[in-house]
Specification:
Helix content: 25-40%
Number of helices: 16
Mean pLDDT: 88
Distance between the termini: 24 Å
Largest sheet: 6 strands, mixed
Shape: globular
Structural class: alpha+beta
Strand order of the largest sheet: 14-18-13-17-15-16
Low-confidence stretches: 1-33, 564-602
Radius of gyration: 26 Å
Length: 604
C-alpha cells in the first residue's frame, strides 16, 4: 500500500499555536462548547439489500454488518487465520462432533447489557428452527444437532457429523433480549426507531438509514476492543463509481473502493489522495440459467430452455475470452480465472487440466453447436431443433462501468457463433430480484470468498434454491447437481485438511464441467482514501491487503483522523478567533495539507 503524502512543516503545530496565542488570536474553548464528531465517510456504489443480519447477502450489507456485530471467531488482520472474537478459546471432542466455546467475560452489548453464552445459543437456535433466519448463513448451522449454554461463559455445540468450519462460523451474534421479541424475521428491517435503538456488539452501531442515500453508524462506546477513534462511520450511496470518485476528489467522502483501472490511475495522481491495490478474494462470472427451480424441483422463471443443454453452455464458455476482459476492461488489474475459488486462497484453488479447460476457441464453440443440432439460418443466427431462432438475454449492473464494457464483448463473441444477445443493465437490487426469480438467461454475477470456502460452495447446492414462496434463496444461479451436493457434504465433515482440500478441488471440477457459469476473472481490489484526513488504515492481510470489504472490521476500526473536525469538515485542530489573520500567519509559517471543502453533497 502506498504511504500518504507527507505534510511538510516549517514550524510545529505547537510552536505556531504558541505564537498565535501570544497575539490573542487563539482563544480557549468556551466551557460547555460542543465538539463536532469525527466522521469517516465511505463511498458505496452498491445497493444495500438488508441490514437484518439474517438476511443480508450483498457485499455492501455484509461489510456493514461486520462493523455492527461480532462473531464467535473472526479473522486475523495479519494472515486471515481464525482468532478470538466473542469466544476466547475452544475445544472439541476426539470425534469432532462436540465443540465447547468459552465466551468472553466483560463484553457488553451497545446498550450496556452483558453479552453471554445465551445470546450465542439463541442466535444459532433461531437459525436452526426458523428457515428465514437461515437465509444468509444457514450453511453453518445445517449440520448442528443442538446448541446449549450451560453457563453464561460456555456454549456447547453438537453436530450431526463432524464439521470442518467450526472456527469459521461467519454468523453475526444477535442480542436475545432484543431479537426474542421479533415475530417476523423476514420483514424485520433492524432499523432504529424512537425508543428502539439498534443494539449490536461490533465496533459501530447503526443509527440511521435512508434507502439509496446513506447508512450511518456511531462508535460503540461499549465495544470490548475499545472505542473506535472516529465518532461516526457513514456509508454514502452513489449511483455509480464515477460519482463516487468525484466525491472523493472534492472531499465529500474519505474512502472508496470498487474503482476501475482508469479511476485508480487518475486518483493515484490526485493531491491528498492515496491509493491502495490488493489481491482480491472475489470472482466475477457469467451465470447461466440451467433450468431454474425451487428447492423441491418445481420449475420457476422464464429462462431459455436451450441453456439446460450442457453442450450449449460449454459452447458459450468456449466463445468468451476472459483474457481480453482482464486486459481491455480491467486494465490488467485482475487475473484470468481458473476454477471457482480465487487463487488468493491457494490451498483450495483449482485450475482445470489442459484437456478440460474452457479456452477461447470459437471454432470449437461452433463445432459443439453444429454437432448438437443448432444450425445457422440464412441470417447467420442459429435455430433450435424446432426451427426457433436462438436469442439470449444478458443482465448486469448499471452501477459498475466494467459490466457495460463486458456486456459489449460478450454480445459480440456470442453473436460471432450465431447467438444474438440482448443486454439490460439494472440496479443491483433489481438484478438480485430477477436472478432469484429465474427470469434471466445470462447474468453477470460474483461472490466474495472467505478463507474457508464452505459458504461460497454452499450457494451452489440444491437446498439453497428458493422455497415455494420464493423466499430463503441465496443460490447464485439456481444450480442443482446431486453429485455436487454429495461432495459438498463430504468436504464439510472432513476434519483431515489434506483430504478436505482434495474433496473441495474435486467439487470444483464437477461444477466446472457442468458449465452453469463461466468464472471469468478475479479482480484486484482498487481503493483510495483521503490521506490529508486519515492515517494509513489497517489492511487485511497485512501487508498487501484491502481496507474495505475485509473478512473483519479492521479497516474501519483502525480509522485514525490526522486532524480534528468542526461542523463536519476537517481543519488543522486550531481554534481560531479571527479567521483572516490566522490564515495569513499559517500560510507564512506552516503548510498543513488542509482538506479542501467540497460542494454540498459490493453479493456482487
Amino acid at each position: 500500500m502506498m504511504l500518504p503524502k507527507r505534510l511538510s512543516r516549517s514550524l510545529s503545530v505547537t510552536a505556531v499555536a504558541a505564537v498565535l496565542a501570544g497575539t490573542g488570536v487563539i482563544g480557549a474553548v468556551p466551557a460547555g462548547a460542543a465538539t463536532a464528531p469525527t466522521v469517516l465517510r465511505v463511498g458505496l456504489a452498491q445497493d444495500v439489500d438488508s441490514l437484518n443480519p439474517f438476511l443480508a447477502e450483498f457485499a455492501s450489507s455484509t461489510d456493514i454488518g461486520r462493523a455492527m456485530y461480532e462473531f464467535l471467531t473472526t479473522y486475523s488482520p495479519k494472515n486471515e487465520a481464525p482468532v478470538p472474537g466473542l469466544a476466547t478459546r475452544w475445544t472439541h471432542t476426539p470425534d469432532g462432533r462436540t465443540w465447547t466455546y468459552t465466551i468472553r467475560r466483560g463484553a457488553l452489548w451497545s446498550d450496556g447489557t452483558p453479552i453471554t453464552a445465551r445470546d450465542v445459543a439463541f442466535t444459532f437456535h433461531l437459525m436452526m428452527t426458523n428457515p428465514v433466519a437461515a437465509t444468509a448463513n444457514g450453511n453453518f448451522v445445517a449440520n448442528f444437532a443442538s446448541v446449549a449454554a450451560p453457563k453464561d461463559t460456555t456454549v456447547v455445540i453438537t453436530t450431526k457429523q463432524p464439521q470442518a468450519t467450526m472456527l469459521a462460523l461467519d454468523v453475526p451474534i444477535v442480542p436475545e433480549h432484543i431479537w426474542s421479541h421479533v415475530t417476523d424475521i423476514g420483514h424485520y428491517t433492524n432499523l432504529p426507531a424512537p425508543g428502539h435503538p439498534v443494539v449490536g456488539s461490533g465496533p459501530f452501531v447503526l443509527t440511521d438509514y435512508r434507502e439509496g442515500q446513506f447508512v450511518k453508524l456511531a462508535a460503540n462506546r461499549h465495544y470490548w476492543r475499545g472505542t473506535p477513534k472516529v465518532d461516526q462511520l457513514d456509508f454514502v450511496h452513489f449511483d455509480n463509481t464515477d460519482a463516487e470518485v468525484q466525491a472523493l476528489v472534492k472531499g465529500d467522502i474519505d474512502l472508496a473502493n470498487g474503482l476501475s483501472a482508469a479511476q485508480f490511475g487518475t486518483l493515484a495522481r490526485t493531491r491528498n489522495v492515496t491509493v491502495n491495490k490488493a489481491e482480491g478474494g472475489r470472482f466475477v462470472d457469467l451465470a447461466m440459467n440451467t433450468g431454474a427451480a425451487t428447492n423441491t424441483g418445481t420449475p420457476i422463471g422464464d429462462g431459455n430452455p436451450v441453456l439446460r443443454d450442457v453442450a450449449v453452455r460449454t459452447a458459450i464458455a468456449d466463445a468468451v475470452n476472459p483474457a481480453t476482459l482482464v486486459r481491455q476492461v480491467y486494465g490488467g488489474d485482475a487475473q484470468v480465472a481458473g476454477g471457482y475459488i480465487p487463487d488468493k486462497f491457494a490451498t483450495y484453488h483449482w485450475n482445470p487440466p489442459a484437456g478440460q479447460a474452457h479456452t477461447f476457441d470459437p471454432a470449437r464453440a461452433n463445432h459443439l453447436l453444429d454437432a448438437d443440432g443448432y444450425r445457422r439460418g440464412a441470417d447467420g443466427t442459429r435455430v433450435d431443433q424446432h426451427g426457433q431462432p436462438l436469442r439470449l438475454r444478458l443482465i448486469g449492473r448499471d452501477d459498475q462501468p466494467q459490466q457495460a464494457q463486458m456486456a459489449a464483448y460478450v454480445k459480440s463473441w456470442l453473436g460471432a457463433v450465431g447467438i444474438p444477445v440482448d443486454v439490460q443493465l439494472v440496479s443491483s437490487n433489481k438484478l438480485d430480484d430477477v436472478t432469484s426469480a429465474g427470469d434471466f438467461d445470462l447474468a453477470f454475477s460474483g461472490w466474495g470468498v472467505d478463507p474457508d470456502p464452505d459458504a461460497v460452495l454452499a450457494v451452489q447446492t440444491c437446498d439453497h434454491r428458493p422455497d415455494a414462496h420464493g423466499e430463503n434463496n441465496d443460490s447464485e444461479v439456481l444450480f442443482c447437481d446431486h453429485t455436487y451436493d454429495t461432495l459438498y457434504l463430504r468436504q464439510r465433515s472432513d476434519l483431515n485438511p489434506a483430504t478436505r482440500v482434495a474433496d473441495v478441488k474435486h467439487l470444483e471440477s464437477v461444477f466446472y464441467q457442468q458449465a452453469s457459469e463461466v468464472t471469468l476473472l478475479y479482480p484486484n481490489v482498487l481503493e483510495a482514501y483521503r490521506s490529508d484526513r486519515f492515517a494509513p488504515f489497517q489492511v487485511q492481510p497485512d501487508p498487501g491487503g484491502a481496507i474495505m470489504a475485509q473478512n473483519g472490521y479492521w479497516g474501519y476500526l483502525s480509522a485514525t483522523p490526522i486532524t480534528t473536525t468542526t461542523g463536519g469538515r476537517t481543519n488543522t485542530g486550531l481554534i481560531v478567533g479571527t479567521g483572516i489573520a490566522v490564515l495569513v500567519i499559517i500560510g507564512v509559517f506552516v503548510v498543513f495539507g488542509v482538506r479542501r471543502r467540497g460542494s454540498a453533497a459490493d453479493r456482487e
